[in-house]
Design goal:
The complex is a heterodimer of chains A (about 400) and B (about 290). Chain A is α/β, with parallel strands linked by helices. Chain A has two domains: about 140 residues, Aspartate Aminotransferase, domain 1 (Alpha-Beta Complex), CATH 3.90.1150.10; about 240 residues, Type I PLP-dependent aspartate aminotransferase-like (Major domain) (Aspartate Aminotransferase, domain 2, 3-Layer(aba) Sandwich), CATH 3.40.640.10. Chain A is built from 14 helices and 13 strands. Chain B folds into three domains: about 120 residues, Sufe protein. Chain: A (Alpha-Beta Complex); about 80 residues, BFD-like [2Fe-2S]-binding domain (Arc Repressor Mutant, subunit A); about 70 residues, 2-Layer Sandwich (GMP Synthetase, Chain A, domain 3). Chain B has ten helices and eight strands. Classes of the chains: A alpha/beta (about 400), B alpha+beta (about 290). Chains A and B meet through helix 9, helix 10 and helix 14 of A and strand 2, strand 3, helix 2 and helix 9 of B.
Chain lengths: ~400, ~290
């Protein structure tokens, strides 16, 4: 069965050109970039090139790029560092819809004597700026707000939020894992101090991330015990993955246009078709500014895992904010923070596209989705009542 | 992805007996949209009103909820009502070749709907129910006391599920019944129930010692402050420091969010009550500015 992969916010296909770029660095050019001999030195040259490529995509300087193992490590490192450099500041701000990589860490801090403020969002997933402005004070060590939400694609006004944090002397971190490569980011003109990237969300392999640290920003390393990354992240470099990420960032810059034209057009077509053909469906965050590739859509009276399983039988890969897919009992914290009713939250499905998505694939989903929802509603006691009322 | 057995997949993709029975003899309904799963079960009896000749269902829920309902209706056909009542959630799961532990509550839902249908048909007192998120306890006169307020689950029901499935941890109880999966406030009570059913004694509640030397008293005060009081204050961003102990006078200074907090008087009182409870009746707590 050929897969129709519409789960690109979970992970992406490694671009063939990226894979070719990294391939020699396993069996042939396996030297350690720290070594004094030519064999390691030639790898070091490629790591330097990769760092330049990442910096170019972000409008940053190469020395502001620290390679890490993943987006989660970058998030953890950023927040821990800020607390260490500002020991007298005991307040942290984040949002209720952050990725667990940030949210879990912040919630753990409340047990260590920190005050943590989680800023809410409105029904469309937009950050409550009034609440945020009121929360930042001279005791705030760090603000961590995601650039774009992984479940809904809703984009936060990061530059405005960063400026507010800076005015109070707080550091500003953003989890930009979903945003990089999809929307323009220019650190040269930004107020952001720290920014996280994950390689596998932009067609590089899993196991590589970046923490951007603005020049002059005080920083304390998370991993110690080696001089790598100027002693800001100890541990032998994952050279092949670093080289791959460099290539992926170079490609992302050239493909950003496609993301915002072709990919967006397909997303919009999918969205419009599903809303037109399936009654009692709603877009989560539909009125907010969103990533061009993400569609979170809720179907009433049915449960998300069942939808995913039936889609999966047809080769269609998507994801859900329902409780049952995660083994927890509550639906997604993002949808609940938005006040999406339980009846919709359980039946939410996320389609996330990429530049590999084709119009034929979108046609398949548009064709297959209505009978799947109809079938599950026929099976559901609530759906049957609804269908009876309609007849 | 869940590791569903081929039987679960088959019953999800080709569910047996979906629909309703307009002239059903017994109907059982559990769950709600808010819970994320719900089941409506219909039973048709033979003319002697003893054997189940047909069973149908409607389910809102995940793949395992649909498969569990389908399996249950297959198991019911041809059984007498008493035989049907003997079906446990474990047998439903076994019929499907097993369910992931996190999904066991789906099989429990099937068993509940069945018990409810038969009880209503017989006009007897309804069995202990778990599912009803929207409306609190489904049956005000139900047996037992509500333990999990989030999901409206009683101790009688929990004890039954713990015993049938030999559960030993609160996480397992949550996977099987949902109890404890909301606010988590009932987890200590669930631990007690496990201990009661499985024959393990819970930790003895701590009591004030009869007699204490000065040395022991000072040690115990420090222990209670570290173990019972400071973690509570941390949760609110506060802290305290023990300054001195003079006989029964305990001097503390409040730190962080507690320092200068308008209600630090209440906090000092809370500390005093706890110390009187666990150390000695005559303890006096004084707040000092140090």
């Amino acid at each position: 069965m050929k897969e129709i992969y519409l789960d690109n916010n979970a992970t992406t296909k490694v671009d063939e050109a990226v894979f070719e770029e990294m391939r020699p660095y396993f069996c042939e050019l396996y030297g350690n970039p720290s070594s004094m001999h030519f064999f390691g030195g030639q790898v070091q040259g490629k790591v330097v090139e990769a760092r330049n490529r990442v910096a170019n995509l972000l409008g940053a300087s190469p020395e502001e790029i620290i390679f890490t193992a993943c987006g989660t490590e970058s998030d953890n490192a950023a927040i821990r560092s800020a607390l260490e450099v500002f020991p007298e500041r005991r307040h942290v701000i984040t949002s209720r819809v952050e990725h667990p990589a940030v949210l879990t860490q912040c919630r753990n801090l409340t047990h260590k004597g920190y005050r943590v403020t989680e800023i809410g969002v409105d029904g469309e997933g937009r950050l409550n700026m009034d609440e945020y402005k009121a929360a930042v004070d001279n005791n705030t060590a760090i603000v961590s707000l995601m650039w774009a939400n992984n479940e809904t694609g809703v984009i936060f006004p990061i530059e405005e939020a960063a400026a507010i944090a800076k005015a109070k002397g707080a550091l500003f971190h953003t989890d930009a894992v979903q945003a990089v490569g999809k929307i323009p980011i220019n650190m040269a003109t930004s107020a952001v101090d720290l920014l996280s990237i994950s390689g596998h969300k932009l067609h590089a392999p899993k196991g590589i991330g970046v923490l951007y640290v603005r020049r002059g920003t005080p920083f304390r390393p998370f991993l110690v015990g080696g001089h790598q990354e100027k002693s800001r992240r100890a541990g032998t470099e994952n050279t092949a993955a670093i080289i791959a990420l460099g290539k992926a960032c170079e490609l992302a810059a050239t493909h950003m246009e496609i993301e915002n034209t072709q990919v967006k057009a397909m997303r919009d077509r999918l969205q419009d078709a599903l809303i037109a053909s399936i009654p009692h469906a709603r877009i989560n965050g539909g009125l907010a500014e969103r990533l061009p590739n993400t569609l979170s859509i809720a179907f009433e009276f049915v449960e998300g895992e069942s939808i995913l399983m039936l889609l999966s039988e047809l080769g269609i890969c998507a994801s859900s904010g329902s409780a049952c897919t995660s083994g927890s009992l509550e639906p997604s914290h993002v949808l609940r923070a938005m006040g999406v009713p339980f009846t919709c939250a359980h039946g939410s499905v996320r389609f996330s596209l990429s530049r590999y998505t084709t119009n034929a694939e979108i046609d398949s989903v548009i064709r297959e989705m209505p009978p799947i929802i109809e079938r599950l509603r026929q099976m559901s006691p609530f759906g049957r009542e609804f269908l009876k009322g309609k007849a | 992805m869940w590791d569903y057995t081929p039987i679960v997949k088959d019953h999800f993709l080709n569910p047996r007996n979906v629909g309703d029975i307009p002239d059903a003899d017994a109907v059982g309904e559990v769950g709600s949209l808010a819970c994320g799963d719900a089941l409506k079960l219909y039973l048709k009896l033979d003319e002697n009103k003893d054997k189940i000749v047909d069973a149908k269902f409607q389910t809102f829920g995940c793949a395992s909820a649909i498969a569990s309902s389908s399996a249950l209706t297959e198991m019911l056909k041809g059984k007498t009502l008493d035989e049907a009542l003997a079906i446990s959630n474990k047998e439903i799961a076994d019929f499907l070749g097993g369910l992931p532990e996190e999904k066991m509550h789906c099989s429990v839902m099937g068993q509940e709907a069945l018990e409810m249908a038969i009880a209503k048909y017989r006009g007897v007192e309804l069995p202990a129910q778990s599912h009803d998120h929207d409306h609190g306890p489904a049956f005000p006169d139900q047996e037992g006391e509500i333990v999990c307020k989030c999901y409206g689950i009683t101790d009688v029901f929990l004890k039954k599920v713990i015993e049938t499935n030999r559960l030993s941890t609160p996480e397992q109880v949550t996977h099987f019944t949902k109890a404890g999966g909301g606010c988590g406030g009932c987890i200590p009570k669930i631990k007690e129930l496990i201990a009661e059913v499985m024959g393990v004694r819970p930790e003895e509640p701590r009591k004030r010692p009869e007699k204490l030397s000065n040395m022991k008293k000072m040690q115990l005060i420090q222990e209670v402050l570290e173990r019972d009081i400071r973690p509570l204050l941390w949760a609110d961003g506060g802290d305290l420091e023990l300054i001195d102990i003079d006989g029964s006078r305990v001097q503390v200074a409040f730190r962080k969010a507690c320092a200068g907090c308008a209600s630090s008087g209440n906090t000092a009182r809370m500390v005093e009550i706890k110390l009187r409870d666990l150390v000695a009746e005559d303890i006096v707590v004084e707040e000092v500015a140090a």
